[in-house]
Write a structure and sequence with these properties.
This protein is an alpha/beta fold. Helices cover 43% and strands 21% of the residues.
């Protein structure tokens, strides 16, 4: 079976590292970026995206919409944020799910696994 590709776009280096470790431990292929611009320049897609709403430059919400509009496949996008309105913001950006900060690796893995199982 082909590895599931996950892209994380999160500006907090500690959180980005923790999410990467948790997902790699589950045998996912993970690439991470600290900002939307760096992700947009590399141009590769993924099966699932985890995007922070508050990024420098292009916002996570705009990035989510770009990914949804430009992809031929149906990638899953999970938005993450400490914003109390995360669920509404994610829905407006056409994200598939939202995960409020702070969260632990179990919360993250549950969200990811649920979407992969549904795909």
């Amino acid at each position: 079976m082909e590895k599931i590709r996950i892209i994380i776009i999160e500006d907090d280096p500690d959180l980005r590292a923790l999410m990467t470790l948790a997902l790699v431990a589950q045998r996912f292929e993970v690439t991470s970026f600290s900002e939307a611009d760096a992700f947009l320049k590399q141009g590769k897609g993924a099966d699932l995206y985890i995007i922070d709403i508050n990024l420098g430059g292009v916002s996570g919400l705009d990035l989510c919409q770009k990914i949804k509009e430009s992809s031929n496949s149906r990638p899953v996008v999970i938005m993450i944020s400490a914003n109390p309105d995360i669920n509404n913001l994610a829905q407006e950006a056409s994200a598939d799910d939202a995960l409020p900060k702070p969260f632990n690796s179990k919360d993250l893995l549950n969200k990811v696994m649920n979407h992969i199982a549904a795909a």
